[in-house]
Amino acid sequence: xxxxxxxxxxxxxxxxxEEIVNQAYRHYVARIGKPPGPMLEDYAARVSEGAAWVLExxxxxxxxxxxxxxxxxxxxxxxxxxxxxxxxxxxxxxLAFAEDEALRRGYREIRLHTH
Length: 115
Hints:
Blueprint: E1 5-8, H1 14-25, H2 27-32, H3 37-40, H4 43-48, E2 52-57, E3 60-69, E4 74-81, H5 90-104, E5 110-111
Parallel strand pairs: 4-5
Antiparallel strand pairs: 1-2, 2-3, 3-4
Protein backbone atom coordinates (compact mmCIF):
# COMPACT_ATOMS: atom_id res chain seq x y z
CA UNK A 1 0.00 0.00 0.00
CA UNK A 2 1.35 3.41 -0.99
CA UNK A 3 2.03 5.96 1.76
CA UNK A 4 0.20 9.30 1.64
CA UNK A 5 2.38 11.97 0.02
CA UNK A 6 2.79 15.66 0.83
CA UNK A 7 3.46 17.97 -2.09
CA UNK A 8 3.35 21.65 -2.90
CA UNK A 9 -0.15 22.67 -3.95
CA UNK A 10 -0.89 23.83 -7.49
CA UNK A 11 -3.67 26.01 -8.87
CA UNK A 12 -5.56 22.83 -9.78
CA UNK A 13 -5.68 21.97 -6.06
CA UNK A 14 -7.47 25.15 -4.95
CA UNK A 15 -11.04 23.73 -5.19
CA UNK A 16 -10.05 20.66 -3.15
CA UNK A 17 -8.26 22.84 -0.59
CA GLU A 18 -11.32 25.07 -0.22
CA GLU A 19 -13.59 22.03 0.15
CA ILE A 20 -11.41 20.42 2.84
CA VAL A 21 -11.19 23.70 4.77
CA ASN A 22 -14.94 24.26 4.54
CA GLN A 23 -15.68 20.70 5.70
CA ALA A 24 -13.16 20.89 8.54
CA TYR A 25 -14.27 24.28 9.88
CA ARG A 26 -17.99 24.56 9.09
CA HIS A 27 -19.09 23.29 12.50
CA TYR A 28 -17.51 26.41 14.04
CA VAL A 29 -19.89 28.76 12.23
CA ALA A 30 -22.74 28.01 14.64
CA ARG A 31 -20.41 28.24 17.65
CA ILE A 32 -18.87 31.63 16.83
CA GLY A 33 -21.66 33.10 14.71
CA LYS A 34 -19.59 33.60 11.58
CA PRO A 35 -17.16 31.70 9.36
CA PRO A 36 -13.77 31.37 11.02
CA GLY A 37 -10.76 32.96 9.33
CA PRO A 38 -9.58 29.84 7.51
CA MET A 39 -12.90 29.66 5.64
CA LEU A 40 -12.36 33.21 4.33
CA GLU A 41 -8.75 32.75 3.21
CA ASP A 42 -7.70 33.31 -0.41
CA TYR A 43 -6.22 29.89 -1.14
CA ALA A 44 -5.43 30.73 -4.75
CA ALA A 45 -3.12 33.44 -3.39
CA ARG A 46 -1.57 31.10 -0.81
CA VAL A 47 -0.92 28.54 -3.57
CA SER A 48 0.63 31.15 -5.87
CA GLU A 49 2.91 32.23 -3.00
CA GLY A 50 4.08 28.64 -2.55
CA ALA A 51 2.71 28.61 1.00
CA ALA A 52 0.24 25.71 0.64
CA TRP A 53 0.83 21.96 0.56
CA VAL A 54 -1.58 19.09 0.15
CA LEU A 55 -1.49 15.57 1.49
CA GLU A 56 -2.65 13.02 -1.05
CA UNK A 57 -3.75 9.51 -0.27
CA UNK A 58 -4.56 7.19 -3.16
CA UNK A 59 -4.70 10.15 -5.58
CA UNK A 60 -7.23 12.04 -3.42
CA UNK A 61 -6.38 15.27 -1.63
CA UNK A 62 -7.35 14.65 2.00
CA UNK A 63 -5.51 17.32 4.02
CA UNK A 64 -3.78 20.68 3.66
CA UNK A 65 -1.27 22.84 5.45
CA UNK A 66 -0.40 26.50 4.93
CA UNK A 67 2.99 27.75 6.15
CA UNK A 68 3.94 31.42 5.91
CA UNK A 69 7.51 32.61 6.39
CA UNK A 70 7.94 35.44 8.89
CA UNK A 71 11.23 37.17 9.72
CA UNK A 72 11.95 35.15 12.88
CA UNK A 73 9.61 32.15 12.66
CA UNK A 74 7.50 30.02 10.37
CA UNK A 75 3.78 30.65 10.84
CA UNK A 76 1.58 27.57 10.71
CA UNK A 77 -1.35 29.48 9.25
CA UNK A 78 -3.72 26.57 8.71
CA UNK A 79 -3.90 22.83 8.91
CA UNK A 80 -7.05 20.94 7.94
CA UNK A 81 -7.89 17.29 7.43
CA UNK A 82 -11.01 16.10 5.66
CA UNK A 83 -13.45 15.03 8.42
CA UNK A 84 -13.81 11.61 6.78
CA UNK A 85 -10.05 11.09 7.25
CA UNK A 86 -9.56 12.55 10.72
CA UNK A 87 -8.14 10.33 13.42
CA UNK A 88 -5.74 8.52 11.07
CA UNK A 89 -2.58 10.46 11.94
CA UNK A 90 -2.64 12.71 8.86
CA UNK A 91 -2.60 15.92 10.92
CA UNK A 92 0.34 14.56 12.92
CA UNK A 93 2.10 13.83 9.64
CA UNK A 94 1.54 17.41 8.46
CA LEU A 95 2.86 18.79 11.75
CA ALA A 96 6.03 16.72 11.36
CA PHE A 97 6.31 18.10 7.82
CA ALA A 98 6.00 21.65 9.20
CA GLU A 99 8.81 20.99 11.67
CA ASP A 100 11.03 19.59 8.92
CA GLU A 101 10.20 22.51 6.64
CA ALA A 102 11.01 25.04 9.37
CA LEU A 103 14.40 23.42 9.96
CA ARG A 104 15.07 23.21 6.23
CA ARG A 105 14.46 26.96 5.97
CA GLY A 106 16.67 27.73 8.96
CA TYR A 107 13.90 28.56 11.44
CA ARG A 108 14.13 27.54 15.07
CA GLU A 109 10.49 28.33 15.83
CA ILE A 110 7.00 27.66 14.49
CA ARG A 111 4.06 29.74 15.67
CA LEU A 112 0.34 29.46 15.21
CA HIS A 113 -2.68 31.56 16.10
CA THR A 114 -5.70 30.19 17.94
CA HIS A 115 -9.00 31.63 19.05
